[in-house]
Amino acid sequence: MSFLSRLVSFFGLVLLAHAGYSAHEHTVLSSNARASTSASTLPQDIIVETILAVIVVSAGLVLGAEKLKPISWRDWAGEIEREGGTRNPYMGLEERYGFWDIRAKRKEFADWMRGQDVLTKQ
User: Fold this and answer.
1) Are residues 46 and 90 in the same domain?
2) pTM reported for the whole predicted model
3) How far is CA 88 from CA 37, 43, 92, in A?
4) Residue 2 three-state SS
5) pLDDT, position 34
6) Which domain, by its residues, includes 50?
7) N or C: which end of the chain has fewer CB within 10 A?
8) Domain-embedded: residue 68
């Protein structure tokens, strides 16, 4: 995270803590006053401060996020294949016993189809 994103996130967390403290103080004061209405709502400024704090914290986290991975499965899988498959999160699934090796089965099927084409052309 860069310094700017940490600063924005910290400022947003301070705002969020202040909004939480303000909401707590409001409920304590309103319960001590024994208002005639049983349902006491939070003031608008506390609600606005909470929403603003959540937006600022979210912006700080987004600013500090790493570069996104490609959305296309083909691009992402191509990157992994070019690197030798070391980052492959599905490596454990691909090496499990009892599961088919899809690539080998595809190659076997393609070879079988080529053999069928040779027989039909003769």
Assistant:
1) no
2) 0.54
3) 60, 51, 9
4) coil
5) 61
6) 3-63
7) C
8) no
